[in-house]
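ZP: hey, is the magnesium ion complex queued? I don't see it on the tracker
AM: it wasn't, my bad. submitting now with these inputs:
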Amino acid sequence: MLTKRGIPVSPGVAIAPAIVLDAEDQPIRRRTVPHSGVNGEVQRLEKALTDATREIETVRDRTAETLGNELSKIFNVHIGMLADPALTTRMRGAIKSERVTAEYAVYNTLRSLALQFKQNESTMVRKMGSDVTDLERRVLKHLIGEARSGLNELDHQAIVVAHDLTPSQTASLDKSKIKALIIDLGGRTSHTAILAHALGIPAIVGLEDITSEVSTGDSLIVDGHRGVVVIDPDAAKLMEYRQEVRRMAAFEDTLDELRDKPAVTRDGTEVILQANIEFPTEVDEAVAKGAVGIGLYRTEFLYLGADVEPSEETQYEAYVDVIRRLGGRPLTIRTLDLGADKVHESVTGSSEYNERNPFLGCRSIRLCLQSLPLFKTQLRAILRASIEGPVKIMFPLISNIMELRQAKMILSDVKEDLEDQGIPYREQIPIGMMIEVPSAAIQAMTFTREVDFFSVGTNDLIQYTVAVDRSNERIANLYSAAHPAVVSLIKEVIRSAQRGKIDVSLCGEMASEPEFTMLLVGLGLRSFSITPPAIPEIKQIIRSVSVDQCRRVARKVSGFDSDREIINYLRDEVVKVMPDLFEGRSFGI
Ligand code: PEP
Ligand code: MG
């Protein structure tokens, strides 16, 4: 039995066997399979070799057509290598005698061949080393791709163990089979973490080397409350956790009873609790958990979940679907926030879209303003859908006023186009912006004259305020919503919105974390947009406190000068209010 700790990002406990996913761009770890799995690995190897050979034949024929036969000949060499019995027998032999995975057999065999070539005296032979590396990537791509898509055909429940997962890979996981996610990389508010939370799958990120500790088939316990993974648990540990699962299920049942009760403080102040969603189908769970609307619809997931760029019609249908599922409740549609860790080939032109500083790069509204057809297509789809229900439009990552004005101007152009074409849309659509860049937070008062509402995106606001990449596990301890500078920016934004008489909400993960509820209410926040599974507990806290009590908490927090002091104090205060809530939970900040 071995225990590992990481960053807990989605609560809950899961007990199931592991499925380990390798990554093409990382060294493949040596992992063994049980005796019964050897034949399956050999078959996977044969299939990957055949598929890679077919792929090279296609590339060869295309090259011959466009560049001529001479240049295409190199691909015959590649095909010859893949068919060379000396190589394939070594790979098969490794699987049969050492019981390693097909991935490791390919990686190890081709790596050592490439090394031999690269150390040769002849320049010609040394160049062949690069060809072998190219072949290795190609064959691994088939094996790893097949393993990932195989997740959807699983006939048993499993826990996914991966070096990293993109948001779209996470989104496509089958919740009925995948019971938890544990990942080497990632930070508290990486989009993969947010999605796992939204899907209600327990998840731990930042485990650093969990993929080398675990093999497919190992028995695992994942404790998403404490951030603990137990590998090969003994009978006592299993019993302890089975009891925990039963205790939590009972506690959640009591919270679910809150669904139809209002989110009102003990002294009668109403707080609006809306939900964040990524996909239309999430609306149903959000409403079931008690959301009174959707405060953040992350529309970029329409792109991330698709192979081809979603057309205006596809987008329109998704928006109408959300509106209808909401049955008259309000919906805030955020325009595309692509870029950084949310990349789609149709937008960037390549799956290998590398910016030197992606989070400071051409993402979100910046990308939209540089890709007008993309932006206008989305705005048309939103406007057309708006006649179906109470829709608001929100622009993300606004960092200066000209950007906002430009976005609004483009929206007016699209409205004019629709009018010219006689296509109906809702005239009075409230326009809002996210406050997730410190420059926007500092200039909030000015922005109140330009928009109808703010939504504070703390996931980004924190990373830009304290200069900590939100998805980097190595500096996750520095990423803190309780940093006094972050608290002070939030306070100023809320105050500016009040003085400017516009609505303000908060839709970053901070709003879903129970430690911060009293502070935010005390700072004057009356609208939260949170991940659906967190709605009952946040509502429970709101119903257990008074506004005066929260104001006292906020005043006390303003006297602290470190995130440690603030978070410790906030935890103590909320535990006084709801002692059961945090039983067994570990906190990160
Ligand atoms: C945020 O930055 O807080 C936010 C809600 O947006 P996202 O997490 O999608 O970047
Ligand atoms: Mg953001």
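AM: back. The first helix runs from residue 38 to 67.
ZP: great, adding it to the tracker
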